[in-house]
Amino acid sequence: MTRTNVSTDQLTLLSLKSQISSDPFHYLDESWSLNISVCHWVGVTCGSRHQRVKALNFSNMALTGRIPRDFGNLTFLVSLDLGSNNFQGNLPQEMAHLRRLKFLDLSLNKFRGEIPSWFGLLHQLQYVSLRNNSFTGSLPSSYFNISKLETLDLAYNSLKGQIQKEIGSIENLRYLNLDGNKLIRTIPPAISNASRLKLLDLSRNSFQGSIPEGIGNLHNLNLLSIEDNQLTGSIPFTIFNISRIKVVSFAINILSGNLHNDVCNGLPILKRLYLSRNKLHGHMPTSLSNCSQLQILSLSENDFDGRIHSEIGRLSNLQTLNLGYNHFTGIYVLSYEY
Asked: How far is CA 337 from the centre of its chain?
């Protein structure tokens, strides 16, 4: 790479502007002028020390275009937000030169091609969102070398293959969203080593096998969703010991077995429990009435039987109760949705 300076930054941004085919609100047309310092252009922030471009925020500008190859010349870039636009094409490999990058949001665009493995070279990355694009290929193992990574959101792409066991080695990972892809095989037990996870969403893939018992060791989880897969076996009881969890969804799988009678005894702030469309059986646990914060309880389309216990009426915060298409006996409780 050539030696860069603020003039290089300006030329690079002009190159980006030349690749913008549609700017309906004229954000760039009106402000990106050679008569104004690049540090005062719309969407551009410079560092106070070197006056180099430090951050770009073009989110929600309805821009259509591509990222040019010389984009990698923005070597002082720390934050890049292109979210909610219409950027297209592949990401240029030259972006691997953005070694200071900490924040990267390319969500809700039309990027395509294999998900870049060279992101693994950007060791300062803390936040990566590529959700709602058209990336393909498998989850690169190089991502597991980014020790500072806290958020990895790859939801709603076309990623294939399996999650490698090294996923548990990202020690600072707090938010992992792989919802809406084409991932297969089993969920690696090593995922339970990512002990700081607060959100884990693996929904709408093609995972098989059982839910790893170790997920119950993720004591910082607020949300756990693995709905709409092909999971079998029973729900590990350890999951109901995650005291900080607010949302649990295993709906639309092939899970069987009883729902443990102590469910909710260790979940003081659970707000939503989705278990519908499985093969769960047995009686409805009376301990469900201990989930005092519960707002949504969905147990429909299973094989539950027995009576619907009256203690369920103690759930004063309940807004949605779905119990239909089971084998309950006695007085039938209609399902209401508000």
From this structure: 27
- The string of DSSP letters for 99-125 reads TT--EEE--SSEEEEEPPGGGGG-TT-
User: What values do phi and psi take at 177, rounded to 5?
Assistant: -125, 110
Residue 124: other Cβ atoms inside 10 A? 15
Cα(56)–Cα(80) distance, rounded to whole angstroms? 5
Per residue in 165-188, pLDDT (tens digit) is 999 888 899 999 999 999 999 999
114-154 pLDDT, tens digit each: 999 999 999 999 999 999 999 999 999 899 889 999 999 99
* Residues 6 or more apart whose Cβ sits within 8 Å of residue 7: none
182/153 Cα distance (integer angstroms):
15
Q: Which residues contact 210 (CB under 8 A, 6 or more apart)?
A: 186, 231, 232, 233, 234
Contacts of residue 175, Cβ cutoff 8 Å, sequence gap at least 6:
150, 151, 152, 153, 197, 198, 199
Residue 83 structure tokens: 């979210």
- Identify the H or E element spanning 247: strand 247-249
Token pair, residue 222, equals: 């607020």
- What separation in angstroms does the CA of 8 have from each of 12, 17, 95, 242? 6, 14, 15, 51
- Mean of the pLDDT values across residues 244-271? 93
pLDDT tens readout for residues 64-82: 999 999 999 999 999 999 9
